[in-house]
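Problem: given the chain below (438 residues), write out its structure.
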Amino acid sequence: MASLFLGILSTPATAQTVGDDGGVASQALKLPSDMTVFGKSDPNVRKATAIVNGYIITGTDVDQRLALIITANGGKVADEERERLRVQVLRNLIDETLQIQEAAANDIRISKAEVDDSYNRVASNFRRTPAQFDDYLRSQGSAAASIKRQIEGEMAWSRLLRRNVQPFVNVGEEEVKQVVERLNAAKGTEEYRIGEIYLSAAPENMEQIVSNARNIVDQIKQGGSFAAYARQFSEASTASVGGDLGWVRPAQLPDELARTAAELDVGQLAGPIPVPGGVSLIYLMDKRKVLTSDPRDAILSLKQLSIAFPGGTTQEQATARAGAFAAAAREIKGCGDANEMGRKLGADVVDNDNVKLRDLPPQLQDILVNLQVGQSTPPFGSITDGVRVLIVCGRDEPQSAGAPNYEQIMAQMEEERVNKRARIYLRDLRRDAIIDYN
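Solution.
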């Protein structure tokens, strides 16, 4: 639920980093040194935290948006981390306000009906009616108004960029051809799908930024969402998509990140890594070879046999039952024999078609990638979840990968340039804004 929640609700974290000790970024933005005082405010008192060009952002606004983030992280956020998130939420709310105000200045306004339609879709994603979703948000310390404000901001900024930025971004035919040539030249080399959290730093506040980065690593390793932290803290243009850089080759990365990525296994996190202008955290989401078919892109047809353990089963009893189940599973002669064997074992049998091998847990990928039709995995599971085996009933091997087409490459290059100009646009809005802090 966390990734879905933040994917819908989080605002791009594109503001400058402000160290907890009030460093260079704090001075540049003229933020007061006592920013943490609003953390002690009574959330029931609508006291202004910041006034942005006349629009009031209250402590309640901050608390309600913060509650969404904490809920998306399973409610497990340390007090120190909560305060750092609170500061970031205020920055995001300020940016959101500036975006809505600039859109309005350009005669772009999002109607209440549009916001409500989008909010209703969010509610349906959580399998709730709008009224039920209202109640759910209140139970988490948030409110429907907080999400609706965020929806309004995202829609307004998107339309503003389409009108004022996108028409002036051009990608030449020769540029696209050069990208295609580089892809073909790199065929067979390894590429990575990487998530990045970038934090800018100057020499005088580097120590504090590194400390902040280590705190983020600790939170993610304790179960926090990498995408959620990327959206709230990363200063890269990919913050709005949870830090996802997409598929990149080592040559496209800074040397420091390329070296680290080559040493990571899928699912591993590394950092903080010193890079020009700051530090980065990287998460290896996947890897493959350029323009080469990957066995892990196969589509499988699977049959699953599973047994559950009754309450009170000891580890010793579970191990014995799993052993007997494993011995019986080895005797299964293909999927045609699975249903009968399942009946004899008292196991539940479920068919799973069109399963992408790459979507399965890494441990199962390593096993299934080498299995032939009719073969089964070793048993896996736990006392709580029971034990199961998967039998391969069919496999559609991946086709040889081809280069992205002209239109895809063009769209990607245009998006990158729009994002770059959008960051500059927002930076200028911050620079010209009149913001009062309490």
